[in-house]
Design brief:
Mean pLDDT: 78
Radius of gyration: 21 Å
Number of helices: 18
CATH superfamily: MFS general substrate transporter like domains
Order of helices and strands: HHHHHHHHHHHHHHHHHH
Oligomer: single chain
CATH architecture: Up-down Bundle
Helix content: over 70%
CATH topology: Growth Hormone, Chain: A
Largest sheet: none
Structural class: mainly alpha
Amino acid sequence: MANALASDRAPIRSRTFAALANPNYRRFYLGQGISLIGTWLQGAAINWIVFEKTHSESMLGVVGAAALFPGLVVGLIAGVIADRVVPRRMILIMEVAQMVLAFAVTFLIGFGIVQVWHLIVILMLTRVCVTFEMPSRQVFLYDVVGRADLSNAIALNSGLFNASRVIGPALAGLIYAGLGATACFALNGASYLAAIVAVLAIRLPARRRPQGAKGLAEVLGGFAFIGSDRRVMILFVLMTFFGVVGMGYDSMIPAYATRVVGTDVRGYSVLLACSGVGATVGAFWMASFSSAESKEWLVLAGLLIFAVALAASAWFPPLAGLVAFPAVRLATASVCLFGVGFGAVLFYASTQTMIQNALPDHLRGRVMAIWIIAYSGSVPLGSLWTGYVASHFGVTYAMTVSSSVCAVVGVGGVVTWLLVKPSAQPLCLAQREAR
């Protein structure tokens, strides 16, 4: 009986973790995981410090915007560079720069001279580094795993990213309470060493430098591809809209924890961790479907799950608090945010997979740079408008509006995608530029 059950599970495991059979990808995965834990640890600590200093939901929105917005400025240049330089070299340079910035925050916190504007400037500089690194990282990922395992690797990376959201904030609450904020930032700085060592250990064949358009035409090559494929354009529009309308909730969690749930920094860490657990489960569940062709239904499912769970997060914890102990209110909010995280990562991972599978290799860096620009612009805008609405009408109202609009537009976007016929024009465009 046990052997039969084991044999039933084996295909699922092999599908879910197929890319990890590649030793280079295993090194990349481990180093990235350690670094991401440090990144989330620092992010949770920064949000809590800002809210302690300002007690302002609007300032949380400003900090959230600062952490992502600079990607809009340098994103296109980063994409062109990613298609032309050795990705490994770019990743190493940007990882070292981020490590230096992390230790700069450690210094400011340790000597008690940190101000909110210091954090905003360092977050902006860090985002510039990330924006240059991420397109190269996407190209590097493709070079490591190849097209066959690309969908699975994208889902596994999403799982790793969100698993770190569980460990990082949980550690942040414990370390912040036990050792102070300085330790949070010092550990983040040290965590970059793991990513640097992992990338140094990977050896790949030399990449062919792409030939084709130069100057402005090269910079805008990613936009030309997106404009030539209506389905890809719909996915980009839907993803950008989701960032603006939906994802602003994330920067409001400190205010949500305090004003709606009525908890402290430990409860705040629990809420972040539960959202991360939901996202991790969603990503690994998505990995088991990496070979499925019809991912548009996963896009719709992710949006609807996110919308329902976000509405529940807004209304169920206060109702539970009327008839039960505060611990029940925290537990209710945690379950709801689990669903929010699950839905969000299901949407993002399935959308990114569909876009990546549609890309010609020589445009991958430029198109994924536009992905970073869309994300870097949409989520900060979401943080700003959510912070504004929450400060004037309350966190509950802001979360309710976000969930309702996401559900309506998500259904409309997926229906439109299904009605649009696949275009053969992108292939022609790719062939012309390749020649």
